[in-house]
Amino acid sequence: MEAAGTWALLLVLLLLLLSLTLPASRARGHLPPGPAQLPLLGNLLQLRPGALYSGLLRLSKKYGPVFTVHLGPWRRVVVLVGHKAVQEALGDQAEEFSGRGTLATLDQTFNGHGVFFANGERWRQLRKFTMLVLRDLGMGKREGEELIQAEVQHLVEVFQGTEGCPFDPSLLLVQATSNIVCLLLFGLRFSYEDEEFQAVVRAAGGTLLGISSPWGQTYEMFSQLLQPLPGPHTQFLRHLDTLVAFTAQQVQRHQGNLDTSGPARDLVDAFLLKMAQEEQNLSTEFTEKNLLMTVTYLLFAGTMTVGATVRYALLLLLKYPEVQKQVQEELMRELQAGQAPCLGDRVRLPYTDAVLHEAQRLLALVPMGMPHVVTRTTHFRGYTLPQGTEIFPLLGSVLHDPAVFEQPEEFNPGRFLDVEGRFKKPEAFLPYSLGKRVCLGEGLARAELFLFFTAILQAFSLESPSSPDSLSLQPAVSGLFNIPPAFQLQVRPADHHPTVQTR
Ligand code: HEM
C-alpha cells in the first residue's frame, strides 16, 4: 500500500516536472481562446480520450470555430472547425499551414521520414518524386484504369462464388484495394487466399484500429509518459512492425534484381534508381529510411482507406434499398450490356456518383483531419500562431457543416445533384483535405471508388440477411479514423449484364 502511495506521488511529481518544461504560455503568440488547462492534465477534463472528436466539437460551441486546446500537458493544438475556417487556413494560407504535425502513435517508427511524416525540403522532394512516379506508372491514365478494372473483375468473381450465401465483405474489399497499391509499389498482385497477404492486410487493419482506439487517443495526449511503459497502447505496434517488415522484404527483393538501366517497374524500383543516381550527394533525401517509410505509409493508406469507404457505401445501399434500385436503374440505362464501367462513364452516371460522394461525406473517414503545423509565425483571423503551432483541421466538421449541408447527419444523395439532376460538388466536399498536404492518393482513390462501386452494382443486387432497420451506420470505432461497422452481405446476379468484359 505504502509502496503504491510512493509510486503515485513520484508519478505526480514526474508529471509536474515534465509539465513545467512545457512551451505552455499563450503569451508567446496571441493564440485563439480555449478552456484553461490544468498543470498535469491539459484539457483532460473537457476531452475524453475515447471521444476526442466529439469533445472538440462540443468545445467549438463555446469557443467558436478557431480555438486552442491542450492535449495532455505537452501538446498545444489550435483546432479549426467548419468549412470556412479550414478553407481559410489550409486553402488560403496554404504555405504557412503546410507543415506536418505529430501522430504520437506512429512517430517513433516513422521519426519524420517518408512522405507523410516529413517536413521542409525532405517532404517537398519526396512528395514531388512520389507523385511523378505514380503518374509514370499509369495513375490518371488509361493503364492505371485498366489495372483497377482487372482487380475489380477478380473481386466480382469471388463475390459470384458466394452464390447468395451471407458473407462479410470487409477483408475481400481491403485485399482488392491493397492489390492495386501492391502492384504500384512492388509490381506484385496477391491471391486473396495467400496467407502472407492476408496477414499484411490484417496488420494494416490492426494499425488503423490501434491509432483510432481510445488507447491510441490517450497516447496522443500522454505519449511522453506512456512511451516507456508496457500496455495496450504498444500492442498495435506489432501490426505496424508487420507492415514495415513486409515492405523491407520487398525492398530487399528489388535490390537483389534491380536493372540499373531502367525503366522502373514500380515505385520501389524508381526509388532505388533515384538513390543510385544521388549516391554522391551527401545531403540526399533519397535514403533507405525515406524509401521504407514512404512505401510503408502508401501501403497502409492504399490498403485501408478505399476498402473501408466502399464497404460503407455498400452498407448504405443495404440500409436504403430504394437508393440501390435507383443506382441500378441508372447503370442499366447508361452502360452497355456486358461492358465493365470505365472512368469516362462517370459523366453519364450522376446519381451513382452522387450516392458515392454522399457515402464518403457521411462516413468522414478522417474526421479529425491529419495534424498540421504552421511552418512560420502565422497571422490568422487576428491571432498570431507561433511557428510550429499544431493545427487540427477537423475535416468531419467540414463534411458535416450545417452551413453547407442541410441536415448533415442524413443520407441524402440529392445534395450532390442540381435541379436538372446533374452532378454538382460543393466546395466543402473535402474528404481528402486541401492545400499543399492534400491527399497524395486522391486521384487513385477517386478512380478506385468509382470503378469498384459501379462494377459491384452492375453485377449484383445486394441484400442483407437482417432487415434494413436493424443495420447500424455508426462507426465501429471513431477516433483518428471512422471505421465502418462490419456486416453480412448477400449478392445475387443483377438481372441485367450477365457477363462483363473490360474495354
Ligand atoms: C478514400 C480514400 C482516402 C481518403 C479519404 C484520404 C484522406 C487523406 C487525408 C485527409 C490526408 C491528410 C491531408 C492533410 O494533411 O491535410 C491524406 C494524406 C495522404 N494520403 Fe490519403 N486518403 C485516401 C486514400 C489514399 C490512398 C489510396 C493513398 C495512396 C496510395 C493515400 C496517400 C496519402 C499520402 C501519401 C498522404 C500524405 C500527403 C502529404 O503529407 O503530403 N491516400 N489522405
TrEMBL record:
Source organism of the structure: Heterocephalus glaber (Naked mole rat)
Function: Cytochromes P450 are a group of heme-thiolate monooxygenases.
Protein name: Cytochrome P450
InterPro entries: Cyt_P450, Cyt_P450_E_grp-I, Cyt_P450_E_grp-I_CYP2A-like, Cyt_P450_sf, Cytochrome_P450_fam2
A cellular component annotation (GO) from this entry: endoplasmic reticulum membrane
Domain of life: Eukaryota
Membrane-topology descriptor: Peripheral membrane protein
Biological process, per Gene Ontology: epoxygenase P450 pathway; xenobiotic metabolic process
Cofactors (names): heme
Signal peptide limits: 1-27
Gene name tied to this protein: LOC101700677
Subcellular location: Endoplasmic reticulum membrane; Microsome membrane
Keywords: Endoplasmic reticulum, Heme, Iron, Membrane, Metal-binding, Microsome, Monooxygenase, Oxidoreductase, Signal
Family per similarity comment: Belongs to the cytochrome P450 family.
Binding positions (heme): C439
Keyword Oxidoreductase in annotation: yes
